[in-house]
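[09:14] KT: can someone run the structure on this one? pasting the chain below
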Amino acid sequence: MNALSLCTALLLAPLTALGAGDAPKQEPNVVFILADDQRFDELGCTGHPLVKTPNIDRLARDGTLFENSFVSSASCLPNRTSLLTGQWERRHTVGWNSGSALAAEQWGDVLPMVLKRHGYTVAYLGKNHTPGLRHWDFDYYYGNRLGHLGFYPKAAQPIFANAAADTQPEILGEGAGNFLEADAHFVERAGERAGVFLRERSKDKPFFLYVCFNVPHSAGTRSMQQRPTDDALYRTAYRDVESQMPLPPGYLAEADVKTPKLPLDIYSGKQIASYDYRRTPEALREQRVRICQTVTGIDRVVGQILEQLKRLGQADNTIIVYSSDNGILHGEHGYGGKCLLYDPSIRVPLIIHDPRLPADRQGRRMKELVVSQDVAPTLLDLCGITAPATMQGRSLRPLLRGEPVEWRRDFFCESLILLQDYPVIQGVRSLDWKYIRYWPSQKTPDDYRELLNLGLNGESPAYEELFHLAADPLEQTNLASDPKQAVRLQAMRTRCVELLRETRGDPQALPTIPVAEWASETPGGWKDVLPLLSRKNAAKGE
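[09:31] RB: done, structure tokens below
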């Protein structure tokens, strides 16, 4: 059976009964809104003193905010794939250097496809950064083929040419609005091929709407031009308080770095130019203005969606999730970008608003450790669907409902990106401690499994860090060489290998396919649409 046939068979598989003998229940809709490179502290409800996010704050006030929410891979491509698959990067094996894409078997078990098999209409909007995402399997697709959108996406992705707006948040807002309530003019402006990717939503089926922004990522914020046609939000907002924009605790300007936090033979400090803003306080404050502007732009789209759901009578039966694909360093320890496993890179906002929860379970702030892999099985569970056995995350439903449950004490995190001089990094984070180990810089091996299995056979890392987060939340004092912590260090080393083995699974398995194979399996109706998704190949960089 070829990949297309298998994918079709998976999608047409019979529906699994949701409980024999139970009375039919109305399935909830799901709206998942994903920001790009948004740190945990960049919302009003998570403590930012200046950013205006009233709609997202309302979701937190009436829903559940997870204060210890983390990603396991500190960069967008692998962690966006983890959000879809519910798997650690070592299990799904789609990474920056893998040259691979999700195979049809893997794709059949991702969150939106499982929902589709159970009768959901599924829609995807915005940035695709998962090789192996099969656009044609969505009932509604308004995004790119692979890579970044930029702040003005029409030039590189003609699929957005029908939008009235030119700016990314507003374009995706139009696309979401049309999915919820069909706009004949919006569809007509898309041309004769619109019926292939902008199909009208069935009103008698539940829906899953996934809106993936490419802001406040620097690919979006650094391409802002303050055009006269831009909304005033993107020209003047927050400019009057730019001098008050807070610098993050632990910030070090480039000129103030005396000794690099990591030895130069472990990490050179090299980064792409789009993160140069962290070098001076003035440039960082300018970037933080742009972040506030675009985060408020996302918030306006959230408000639009909330209003539409209310008007359609769907607000009380729609679960809304808000999160980010990873965090980012803003000069902490003198570093910019992500990939390093310090908390600003791996801690992200996560809000789950389920209006069906009892009133006494709303407005909660949870302290438990949760990871990106938990989102997919949680949403399936909340929809009454059993998650595939392939998903490694855990449903958060017991936490949402206040049910007794033994929860994780720690989690495994990693960075497998070998670009920009980054080494292979592995770590374990608990509530109070973090252990990080670094491997010597290397090229991608001919057999990618060597990279995935690194550390399983007793190999020694080149450098280690140990932080007591309860006493040192900024991760400034490395205790790895402290004799008083020798027992704890060894315990964390052992735990790292245990979690590595658990998340990796079968060390011989490489379930993915080459990117070229995925790119060539496009079905007939979509071959004419692909040029609309991108006029160029996938964007490079973080």
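[09:33] KT: thanks! The radius of gyration is 22 Å.
[09:34] RB: yep, looked fine to me
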